[in-house]
Structures are given as structure tokens and as C-alpha cells.
Amino acid sequence: MTFSPAPARFGPLTGFTIGLLLLMNIYAPQALLPLLAREFGLSTAQVGAAIGSTTLAIALASPVAGLLADALGRRRVMLWAFALLLLPCLGAAFAGNFTALNVARFAQGLLIPLVSVALTAYLAEETPPGTLGRYMSAYISGTVLGGFLGRFVSGLVAHGGNWHAAFWFLMVTNALGLALVWRLPPSSGFRPAVDMRQAARTLRDHLKNPRLLTLNVVGFLILFVLVAVFNTIPFRLSAPPYHLGSGALGGIFAVYLLGVVVTPASAPFVARLGTPRALVAAAGLSLLGLALTLFAPLAIVIAGLALASSGVFIAQAAAQSAVQFSVSEGRSLAGGLYNATYYAGAAVASVAAGAAYDAGGWRAVAALCALALLGVAGLSAVVGRRLRQQETAKVG
Fold first, then answer.
1. What is the DSSP string of 3-18?
2. CA nearest 372: which of 330, 315, 298, 323?
């Protein structure tokens, strides 16, 4: 099966919308976790697998997705991925037990990086010179809004207790994603890399790139924090004294909307400070937000969630742009490696945060996330040192 190009205008809004539609797949069940836990008789740590199965699959598939996108082309890979995503959505909609749901969610995760990895490389190759930061920030903003809408809409449609409806909704959004990628212009800067020996050499070079590897660890910690917070906050807010239902819990994720504004607005800030300092500032903002969530009033908790998530979004935009600048070839593979460690952080958080919550409540989760954010701040110094070494080598 082949997909013929259908040229259309391509601007930041296109990447924004693709990111929105794609990310709705990953976190849609998050507002449903208390509902799923009650229906299937699961603990907080166990039910987190509804998110962890997807993010684990994303981590495993991301490097392969990079190789496929480098060999077959960015647009073609994205088209196939959105088309095939319709199938696991159908499987999840008909799932009669938690195991079947997790199998469908794992299949979703295998396909998602085919879009995300290919799209970031497509942006790096097809955007006008000097505009990658703007396009990448728009894409990240779209993923932020998609993360919110996936959670919010799933919470709304499941308010009466029918969580299956959330996956029927995702079938519609993935069909829209397929139509949008169909309208992308064909690649002009892409050169296929079909030589597996060359791909192996590129992988070896990436694995020897200390700045890229450091950014990968930063990515792990960034998403670890985000998933740890939003996997467990529904359990805190559905319990006394809040007693929020799935619809209200979905509304709590509206704090993500702040990220839609903050992420593109932070692009000049990140460019002026540079990646290392921007990561420190973003980690500090998230730490402040986490501290606020320790207070009891719901309004203060929500404000804390908004600050914590905004810091994560700024850090993600800074790190993902830096990944593309840290390599000169094999961009999809570099993005795939970053996605692998990034989503591995989510998979680990899905279990670790649930276990922390079961053992020590919200304070234990907040402490775990604070340690991860301190790790981001510390590793940013390593990124800065590596960057200075590269610049010195070029001058020499």
C-alpha cells in the first residue's frame, strides 16, 4: 500500500495539531484510574499499568521507529502509524477485562513513536532556517493540549461509569490524525538511510555522544515526574476530603492548558538562557509547584499542579530541541533513543509512584518527584559542560 503526497501549507499549527491528536492516546485512561481500580479490584500500583503498558511499549519501540523513519521516510511512517492506531483503540473499546485492556494499550504504545519520532525529524528537516525552536515549541504545546484533552474527555465520557466510550472517541481522533498527515507536503530534506551497516554506525555514534546520552537521562526524569504526579493525584482527590468523581478529576487536568501558553512563550527564554540554565529554572518551577500541592485547600493544590506541570513542559521543550541540535545525522534515531528513555521514565513512574502512594500517600510521591527534579537540575550542569567542550573543540 502506498500513500501519494498531497501537498498543503505547512506551518507551526500543523505540528501543533498532530501532537495534540497523537498524545490523546497516551494518557486518556489517567482520569479513569480510580474507576478502573474499583471495577477490577486493583491497587494504585496495579492499575497504573493502564498507563505503564503504553509507555513501556513506546520506550521499546522508539529506537526501531527511528530506524524505520530514517529508512522509509517521515511522512509514510506517520501515515501507517495513524492508520494502524485505529485497531488497538477498537480492541480497548471491546476489552472485557484488565488484561485485554493492557494488551490493547501496549499495542497503542508500539505505534505512537512512529509518529512522534518521525515528526520531530520532519520538523528539523522541513522547517525554514532558524525556526525549529518555534515549530518544536508549537508541537510540544500540541502534545500538552492533547494530554489534557485525552484525560478531560475520557473523564467526561466515563462520568456515568462507561470507560469503554473513551476509546471509541480515540478512534475518531486518530482518523483525524491520519487525514492531517495525508495533507503534509512530501519531504524535501529527507535522504533515506537503508544501509543497515550505516544505521549501526550511526547508532554507535549516538551511544558515544555524551551530550545526547545526558539529555536522554534528563528526559527519563522529566516524564517520570509528570506521570508520577498525574497517575496518583486522582486517588488523592477522589478520597476524603475532596471526593471528586471522574468528570471532576478530568477537569483537574485543565492545569495542562497553562502549558499550552507557557511552552511557546518560553521559547525565547530558553534560547536566551541556553538549555542548561533553562533546565535548572524549569526544575525549580516544578519544585515550587510540588511544594504547594502539600497544602490541603483544593485551589492551592491545583495551583501547585499548574506550576509543576509548566516546569516539566518547559524542560521537555528545551531538552527535545537540544537533542536535534546534538546530532548532525540520524535525527530520527536520535529522537528514537530520546523517546525510549523518556517513556521509560513514564513506565517506571507508573509502578514506582503507585507503590509510593500506597506506602506513604501523596507526601511520598511528592518526595520521589522532588528527587527526580533535583536530578534534572544536576544533570543540566553536565549538559552545559559537554556543550562548552564541543564549542572548544570546534574552535581548536
1. ---------HHHHHHH
2. 315
CB burial class (10 A; 0-12, 13-18, 19+) of residue 117? Answer: buried
Check whether 5 has a pLDDT greater than 60: no
Cα–Cα distance between 23 and 144 in angstroms, integer? 8
Q: What's the CA gap between 289 and 303, in Å, rounded?
A: 7
Residue 128: DSSP 8-state: P
Hey, what's the cell of 156?
467526561
pTM confidence score? 0.74
Quick one: CA dihedral 144, 276, 230, 175, positive or negative? positive
Minimal CA–CA distance to 226: which of 356, 141, 350?
350
Element of type H or E holding 30: none
Q: Rounded distance, CA 129 to CA 57, Å?
A: 34
CB 302 within 8 A of CB 284: no
Contact 372, 220 (CB under 8 A): no
In angstroms, rounded to a whole number, what is the distance separating the alpha carbons of residues 171 and 136? 26
Contact 352, 368 (CB under 8 A): yes
* Grid cell digits, residue 28: 486518556
Neighbours of 272 (CB within 10 A): 9
Burial of 210 (0-12, 13-18, 19+ CB in 10 A): middle
How far, in Å, CA of 247 to CA of 249, rounded? Answer: 5
| CA neighbor of 85 nearest in space, from 213, 8, 176, 216 | 176
Cell numbers at residue 347, please? 513506565
Sign of the torsion angle spanned by Cα atoms 25, 58, 124, 137: positive
Q: Read off the DSSP letter of residue 330.
A: -
Instruction: Give the H or E element holding residue 99.
Output: helix 98-126
User: Helix %, strand %, coil % for the chain, to 5?
Assistant: 85, 0, 15
What tens digit of pLDDT does each residue of 235-255 get? 899 888 988 876 777 777 777
H-state helical runs in 158-255: 165-182, 196-207, 210-238, 246-252
| Sequence-distant (≥ 6) Cβ neighbours of residue 241 within 8 angstroms | 296
Written as one letter, the residue type at 151 is R
Instruction: Identify whether the C-beta of residue 365 lies closer than 8 Å to the C-beta of residue 229.
Output: yes
Polymer length in residues for the chain? 396
Q: Summarize pLDDT for 134-171 with one digit per residue, the tens.
A: 888 788 788 878 888 888 888 788 766 678 888 999 99
